[in-house]
Protein: ROK family protein
Amino acid sequence: MKVGLDVGGTKVHAVAVGDDNTIVAEARLATRTGAEGVVASIVDAITQVVPDGFVASSIGIGIPGQIVPGTARVQHAVNLGITDLDLGAALAPFTAAPIRIENDVKAATLGAHALRGGGDAMAYLNIGTGVAAGLMLYGSLHRGGHGIAGEIGHMSIDPAGPRCRCGQFGCIEALCGGGAVAERWSRPGALPIRDIYDAADLGDAEALALRAGIAQGIAAAVRLLVLSNDVDAVVIGGGVTAVGDRLFTDVRAIFEREAELSPFLRSLRFDDRMEPLPAASPAAALGAALVGVAELPEGALAHG
Amino acid sequence: MKVGLDVGGTKVHAVAVGDDNTIVAEARLATRTGAEGVVASIVDAITQVVPDGFVASSIGIGIPGQIVPGTARVQHAVNLGITDLDLGAALAPFTAAPIRIENDVKAATLGAHALRGGGDAMAYLNIGTGVAAGLMLYGSLHRGGHGIAGEIGHMSIDPAGPRCRCGQFGCIEALCGGGAVAERWSRPGALPIRDIYDAADLGDAEALALRAGIAQGIAAAVRLLVLSNDVDAVVIGGGVTAVGDRLFTDVRAIFEREAELSPFLRSLRFDDRMEPLPAASPAAALGAALVGVAELPEGALAHG
Structure:
């Protein structure tokens, strides 16, 4: 029984997966932050999906940070309050199963690809606090020479756009990343993205501008992934997409306007290639379970 | 003896290549346009590189147009005055060798990769009349599901930029494609791009703006290829690069400014990854020779 965990800033989603990759148990619980909190959350989640008397054959973890190549160590997981943590070593006292870890977006890419039944060239576009994509080409995750393939959030698409934390202006992430958008929104609230969509529905000018920027950023990301790699599908998930239909309707409206202006863009069928990841999709946790049993690419290695 | 031909709008470059892929003969001649002219130019060029008494074992042709998948037929080769031409059938009376054809940018990508000794993930960025890239990933040309991978010329990077023939504003091609830039240059001349660089050197405001746009477009294309695919090298060629050092110096200045503003961009080492293709490089013709003996991917098939 393979276990996969998607460790997010707010929740841990754990799945237990059978030999045929079907999900046999599932749990969601709140993430406690900091190194100790994250380790405790992971142990609790594993306990919830592995029945008494069973043991996990492998554990895979998707986590929003940088994975030190060839280790089960994560760095700069800012949303989790982790600077540097050897997850393999920290979890070893609790389980005998081999542990592999992977960046959360890359794990979700593997999971989304498996849920689509494998096959075609595919991108997974994550619109969360930050924005990044994963690419499945020829049945494997395309990492590139330095593991940065898919870091398209920092492509500038408007020199007159908002300043990005990376130093550029008008990056895709500055326009549609949840962190950047929430920072520019002037009103407090626990769910700033949802508040922006609601205020925009009521005609609020500031909210309308931010909402238009989100759609502009996502449309550009889809365009970039199709023009560069001709992927057959761009699956889109991440925290910002929790606002649902309103977001995708805005993006579709951009594609429709473009298609009217440009036979070339119409021929690329961006709308057909865009696939919203359903709410509560197990893609990220399932992908983590697949990481757990993967051959050992750079960045995903058994501990010990 | 393999023969490769790069059929450009102004010249045909032919090479004969030995079994170890070394170039044993080379010829350059002016392209005659129109279907008959192109066929005659190709036949003349083959004659010049294949010694009397020898026969070509294969002929590969790189041509700036759309290749009908699975055929040796080219369409919409606008610069050659060709709407639709079955090159395989047209050349059959002149040679018994199998003929394969490929889009010129894709052929040049194969050639540039071979000249670098194979290996790493690489992009070839062609800044000609139009702008497009080819991607070598895992030792093969990455075409994507519909053969459009690398069409990054039509990524918009500035909504306030010049209108592109594709209908968008501020496309990479609208900024740095030779055709688009020459159209916006108000003064007549046989070598508009060179004239623009010369006028800019003298402080001409219109020329300075166009020249800055060329550098902006090329820098964005390099950024896009690195962020999306993490290629180790972006080899840059094409007609516009004939202005040489001045162009690459401008692009390097952009990368230097960026690196000062952004540790993230500095870490990507765009400057190190950018490799100007030397003037008179045989990359395109050599790549065409390799197309001639390639396994049969979509878009490159023996005639007959």
Summary: Confidence is low (pLDDT under 50) at residues 296-304 of chain A. The interface with chain B takes residues 120-121, 133, 135, 137-138, 142-152, 154-160, 166-168, 220, 223-232, 258, 261-265, 268 of chain A (CB under 8 Å).
